[in-house]
Amino acid sequence: MNKSFNLLLENSIKDNWNLDALTDYKGATLQFKDVARKIEKMHIMFEAVKIKPGDKIALCGRNSAHWGVAFLATITYGAVVVPILHEFKADNIHSIVNHCDARFLFVGDRVWENLDESMMPHLEGIILLTDFSVLVSRSEKLTYARENLNAMFGQRYPKNFRPEHVHYHQDKEEELAVLSYTSGTTSQSKGVMLPYRSLWSNVRFAMDSIDLRAGHKLVSMLPLAHCFGLAFEFLFEFCVGCHVYFLTRVPSPKIIFQAFAEISPNLVITVPLVVEKIIKKEVMPKLESLGAKFMLSLPYISDKVYAAIRKKVVDAFGGNFISIVIGGAALNKEVEKFLQRINLAYTVGYGMTECGPLIAYVPYERFKEGTCGKIISRMEIKIDSPNPAYEAGEILLKGDNVFLGYYKNKEATKAAFTDDGWMRTGDLGTMDFEGNITIRGRSKNMILSANGQNIYPEEIEAQLNDLPYVAESIVVQRDGKLVALVYPDFDLANMEGISDAAINTKMEQNRIELNTHIPSYCQVAKIIVYHEEFEKTPKKSIKRYLYQ
User: Fold this and answer.
1) Would 379 be classed as within a structural domain?
2) Rounded to whole angstroms, how far apart are CA atoms 15 and 256?
């Protein structure tokens, strides 16, 4: 089997030429032929400034049809696309653009308002995603190419641009395709290097496992700069000829349900937070009334009540989906039991950026409550435990989805693999005799937020420890919110005549200051002051597990 990812894209464009491809919700629609034409124009610009395969092109903005076009144009050219989460602070974006050696930056209008091009001196051009106009050009060739793009396109294709003109970079399996930064700072340099084989393997698995076909519809609400949204709300659908609607704004529950009602998607890809909000806010309160409780106590009637509830939940997601696929974080146990009780067609997968992202999945018909599926095609799993069915051990992986390593970070890359080549996930799990995987915890310190964002507490702590009167700190998750535990520098405070009560005020000021420097999804909700130093290991690192 040919494992070329670009060939999947090329064939889909040719096969679905006249079908709708990408729509900005409440905005314009691009058909596959429109996407192909825009890709071709981007390639003419890349050629004009001598972009080479392997050069880096960064991409930062809200989900949109043009975000999709910029991604596809980069990857089909053979350049490396660097998707950056639009929620990152400006200095984080500057830092990533510089660290990855990007030659170009595609940027959304809202992100651009806060950026400073002088902080990204090596960029040759900055291009606005809204209309692909050039915001900053440090190259006469780029300026000329953009100003004369339509004429250059017309000269190349004088008798119209047709499907037979679509030919893309012939990718090799081990060639770098995507450089995905898992956090906003590069102090630990987590640029995950995903090769073309990882993209191909993820998309090919979805094509073989999920019954989506050309013309089917999907609502994209997860950030495309994350592998989960990128692979399963965009690339998979594009490769089978689906019509993807991008919400283009903050996906509040109101907007999500409005879009679902209007579009009636054929598949729902989501994170636990969205499902939990519907169940906990819309459904469960109605079941707490005495009348409902009495009805549910009667066997025959309770089945009818649950069937009616199921219909309400199905209708909330547009009423037309084959399945709800949940990933990105653990599903609340109470909510999962409820989904089982109403017999909803849902399944929970497991993945991580380093696998682009998929590791485990089964269709809803074979899904076992509390697990996250089975190891997928072209991947191998090993639980580092003497008794994997009953005793948790680290989940180790090999296979086509696995990344190449961390960009410019040999030390972190070496630590990510065992001596015999297995990738360390940092997750603890068990696997039953049928192959169902259950996540039991994390051996890493990474925190998964309720909506599936990766949060690295050390990075928040490093910034907090630089603020006034903070001696040491730990960031933990409590009731779904981030809380910072702080041991203040009491000696300094006493020398400066600051009372214990005033320390609390200073810490609240620190919290407000800290939150101005970190992305919205990792804001600290509260600081709790500790009056004794945190317990340490012999290596003098804090024993985090004592404070979780």
Assistant:
1) no
2) 30
Residue with tokens 């999920």: 210
Measure the CA angle with vertex 185, ends 181 and 190; round to 5°: 40
Residues 479 and 340 occupy one common structural domain: no
Phi and psi at 27, nearest 5°, equal -140, -150
Tokens representing 3? Answer: 């494992």
Q: Which of 408, 398, 403, 409 is nearest to 376 (CA)?
A: 398
Domain membership flag for residue 372 = no
Model pLDDT, residue 456: 73
Tally Cβ neighbours within 10 Å of residue 517: 16
- In percent, the amount of the chain with pLDDT more than 70 equals 94
Q: Which of 412, 517, 526 is nearest to 459 (CA)?
A: 517
* C-alpha closest to that of 223 among 76, 85, 37: 85
Across-strand partners of 180? Answer: 192
Query: Which residues lie below 8 Å from residue 350, measured CB to CB, with a gap of 6+?
Result: 327, 358, 359, 360, 361, 372, 373, 437, 439
363: in domain: no
Query: Which pTM does this prediction carry?
Result: 0.85
* Residue 125: domain span: 34-210
